[in-house]
Amino acid sequence: MAILPVRIYGDPALRTKARPIPSIDDTIRKLAEDMRETMRAYHGVGLAANQVGVLQRILVVDVPLENEQHAQFTLINPKIESKSGNEEGEEGCLSIPGIFENVKRALQIRVTALDEQGKPVDLVAGGYLARAIQHEIDHLDGVLFIDRLSLLKRQMLRRALDSLAKGEIPDGHEPQAPEGAF
């Protein structure tokens, strides 16, 4: 297992749409394992391949549930089949450290994908798990959570985002996102 460097805002990989994975082999399984290790090392709950510079449609999530349980999934070529309800909640991103804003997302989703063995996954997710999966699928499409903010909010964040794009840590921001970022 390897901890991969997480790409930070301004890196072109974060704005590039990932390609579908035509077949699942040991290379893809190793990538999934490395992504899980990286997500844990950065105290995240989700990670998309774009965030580690790999432009393939794979994501991992490890979302805490009640009773110290976790929803852990590797989704390859995920596609949201349906959405219902709306909910606004705070999001952060390992690729945009130190910035947290409220984002409106579907409350429940149905997603189809493949697992690491190539078996079909048909998952209905709600709440925080649905939010995490939507956030990561956005990454695979080259969309960042800040793109879902109002123009005014984005303008207010411009200075901090410009600093990140230059490789600088903005004043008052941590180099790693606190636990719970995607």
What can you tell me about this protein's structure?
This protein has helices at 26-41, 127-140, 151-165; strands spanning 46-48, 58-64, 70-84, 87-93, 96-105, 108-114, 120-126. Helix content is 25%, strand content 31%. It contains three helices and seven strands. Strands 1-2-3-6-7 form a five-stranded antiparallel β-sheet, sandwiched between helices. Strands 4-5 form a two-stranded antiparallel ribbon. The model is unreliable at 173-178 (pLDDT under 50). 36% of the residues are buried. The protein has a single domain, classed as Peptide Deformylase, CATH 3.90.45.10. Strand 2 and strand 3 (70-84) form a beta hairpin. By secondary structure, it is an alpha+beta fold. The radius of gyration is 16 Å and the shape is globular.
Topology record:
Layout: H1 26-41, E1 46-48, E2 58-64, E3 70-84, E4 87-93, E5 96-105, E6 108-114, E7 120-126, H2 127-140, H3 151-165
Antiparallel strand pairs: 1-2, 2-3, 3-6, 4-5, 6-7
Query: In order across it, which strands form the biggest sheet?
Result: 1-2-3-6-7
Largest sheet, in brief, is: 5 strands, antiparallel
Whole-number count of domains: 1
Compute the number of strand runs.
7
Tags for this entry?
single chain; 182 residues; Peptide Deformylase
Outline of this structure?
The protein is 25% helix and 31% strand.
